[in-house]
């Protein structure tokens, strides 16, 4: 009888005892196992552990909690992980800032490849001791400052909204949204933007910078049918500005579109073909659509860079320069930022020969926040401190340095009865939007987030910010605590530091 197969057998359709063992007849036994279990090499060239479905217990089921898509698959012999089991393992996984990587020289990379491959620079979860000590010193110096005092109502606003808005339909929408008075940045920036000048606007977070450039640009669009491109650092901030445009232009012949990563590319292309008046997006996706021929930068009359310092910190300098180089000669460029650092100054001096600087001298972000330090000895004591603190918090944001830590902390706190959810870059865009919407609607009380939410997210009534992990830089610390104490209100920021 002919037992030959009618298809060509792949050299990967074999089972080996160990990946490092020589490929001989003695290593091709089906009953041999290694540290991965019985591993089958298929023609897909991917190793798959062979699980016994009958022996799989409840611990091997993936975890899916709250609105999170976090899932962990465990094998039959894996014990359930928690913050109270195996403290040494938890200490290594949750305090990676204590274990810095190598210095990034050639020939010192870790892993099986080795060779002259450079080590990746420090990530959010790890930092060197020198940087950590510098941040801790800054936090301790901020704690010793006088107690924060809430800004008085008459100091927040300087005039009536009717004095700066000329379009009746726009004024109606602003009044319906609750805008009755203007802030200092709005009163100073709106007249300058109407003159067509390039500006650099410097003001604290929560002072109305978005409305300061949207009001004059919407009026110009209604009169001259101009087009505006708005660049922002994060998807969440882009969605927030898109919603503001929608509310401001209700019942007006103005169309806006958002271009961000994680969203449906085909739908964005179709919406761009409708020639929207306002396009809001992140630099990476805008550049992608430009290369596809769906966006022509020279067609836009106004270009706005909101949170310019944050975009430069995130490494968008190349994308921003590529976009600004293609703008037309008479374009109006508007730069808005919370801080004026060297990167922002170099960028605006390169692309704007003459511009007006509008700086609002107010209290620093940290001056409106009562900053505290809570020390702990080990990770078990750290979790006890967190549970004790959250019992006194009304609505808070808990910042961590890694995505894995955010999901793990969310699971633990939910098991303890707290209403939490996690936000980080590994989640889909639809899920991130749903989480932020639920948080704003008070469907849960505590948002666990990486630094993706540390800038540009405007959520009302955040009473506390908890730094579960020490941030990587001083700037990250400032932007984290800036999520509370907004619009002149006093907030409380707590940072956990090991003794």
Give a concise summary.
The chain is α/β, with parallel strands linked by helices and 499 residues long. The chain contains 16 helices and 18 strands. Helix 5 (184-194) runs parallel beside helix 6 (209-224), helix 6 crosses helix 7 (235-248) and helix 9 crosses helix 11 (317-324).
Q: What attributes characterize this protein structure?
A:
499 residues, alpha/beta, seven-stranded parallel β-sheet, 16 helices
Descriptive account of the structure:
The chain is 33% helix and 15% strand. It is an alpha/beta fold and 499 residues long. The strands form 4 sheets. It has a 7-stranded parallel β-sheet, with helices on both faces. It starts with 13 loop residues before the first strand and ends with a strand.
Give the topology:
Layout lengths: L13 E2 L23 E3 L5 E3 L37 H8 L34 H15 L9 H4 L2 E2 L7 H10 L3 E2 L1 H11 L4 E4 L6 H16 L3 E4 L3 H14 L7 E4 L5 H8 L5 E4 L1 H9 L10 E5 L1 H6 L3 H8 L7 E6 L4 H10 L4 E4 L9 E8 L2 H12 L5 E4 L3 H13 L4 E4 L5 H12 L5 E4 L14 E4 L6 H8 L9 E8 L1
Helix pairs in contact: 5-6, 6-7, 9-11
Instruction: Tell me the number of strands.
Output: 18
Count of helical stretches: 16
What proportion strand? 15-25%
Averaged pLDDT, please?
75
List the uncertain runs: 4-126
> What would you call the structural class?
alpha/beta
Shape: globular
Q: Which strand order spans the largest sheet, edge to edge or round the barrel?
A: 8-9-7-10-11-6-12
Q: What helical percentage do the residues reach?
A: 25-40%
Largest pleated sheet: 7 strands, parallel
Radius of gyration: 27 Å
Q: Please give the alpha-carbon distance between the first and last residues.
A: 77 Å
């Amino acid at each position: 009888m002919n037992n030959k197969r009618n298809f060509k057998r792949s050299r990967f359709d074999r089972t080996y005892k160990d990946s490092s063992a020589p490929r001989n007849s003695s290593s091709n036994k089906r009953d041999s196992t290694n540290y991965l279990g019985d591993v089958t090499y298929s023609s897909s060239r991917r190793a798959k552990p062979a699980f016994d479905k009958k022996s799989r217990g409840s611990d091997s089921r993936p975890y899916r909690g709250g609105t999170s898509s976090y899932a962990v698959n465990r094998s039959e012999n894996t014990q359930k992980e928690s913050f109270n089991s195996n403290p040494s393992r938890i200490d290594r996984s949750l305090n990676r800032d204590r274990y810095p990587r190598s210095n990034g020289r050639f020939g010192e990379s870790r892993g099986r490849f080795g060779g002259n491959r450079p080590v990746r620079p420090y990530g959010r979860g790890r930092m060197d001791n020198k940087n950590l000590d510098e941040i801790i010193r800054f936090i301790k110096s901020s704690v010793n400052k006088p107690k924060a005092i809430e800004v008085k109502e008459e100091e927040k606003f300087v005039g009536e909204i009717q004095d700066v808005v000329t379009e009746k339909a726009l004024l109606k929408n602003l009044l319906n949204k609750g805008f009755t008075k203007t802030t200092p940045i709005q009163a100073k920036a709106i007249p300058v933007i109407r003159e067509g000048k390039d500006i650099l606007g410097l003001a604290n977070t929560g002072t109305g910078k978005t409305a300061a450039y949207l009001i004059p640009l919407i009026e110009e669009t209604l009169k001259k049918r101009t087009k505006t491109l708005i660049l922002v650092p994060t998807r969440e901030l882009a969605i927030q500005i898109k919603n503001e445009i929608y509310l401001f232009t209700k019942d007006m012949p103005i169309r806006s579109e958002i271009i961000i990563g994680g969203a449906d590319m085909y739908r964005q292309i179709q919406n761009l073909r409708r020639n929207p008046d306002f396009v809001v997006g992140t630099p990476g996706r805008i550049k992608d659509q430009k290369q596809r021929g769906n966006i022509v930068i020279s067609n836009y009359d106004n270009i706005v860079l909101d949170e310019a310092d944050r975009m430069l910190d995130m490494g968008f300098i190349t994308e921003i320069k590529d976009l600004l180089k293609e703008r037309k000669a008479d374009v109006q460029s508007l730069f808005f930022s919370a801080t004026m650092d060297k990167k922002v100054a170099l960028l605006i001096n390169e692309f704007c020969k003459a511009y007006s600087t509008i700086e609002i001298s107010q209290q620093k972000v940290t001056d409106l926040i009562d900053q505290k330090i809570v020390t702990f000895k080990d990770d078990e004591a750290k979790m006890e401190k967190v549970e004790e603190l959250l019992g006194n918090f009304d609505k808070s944001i808990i910042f961590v340095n890694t995505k894995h830590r955010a999901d793990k902390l969310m699971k633990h706190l939910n098991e303890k009865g707290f209403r939490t959810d996690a936000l980080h870059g590994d989640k889909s865009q639809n899920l991130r939007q749903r989480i932020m919407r639920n948080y704003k609607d008070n469907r849960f009380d505590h948002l666990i987030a990486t630094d993706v939410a540390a800038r540009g997210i405007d959520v009302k009534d955040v009473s506390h910010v908890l730094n579960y992990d020490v941030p990587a830089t001083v700037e990250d610390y400032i932007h984290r605590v800036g999520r509370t104490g907004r619009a002149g209100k006093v907030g409380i920021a707590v940072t956990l530091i090991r003794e």
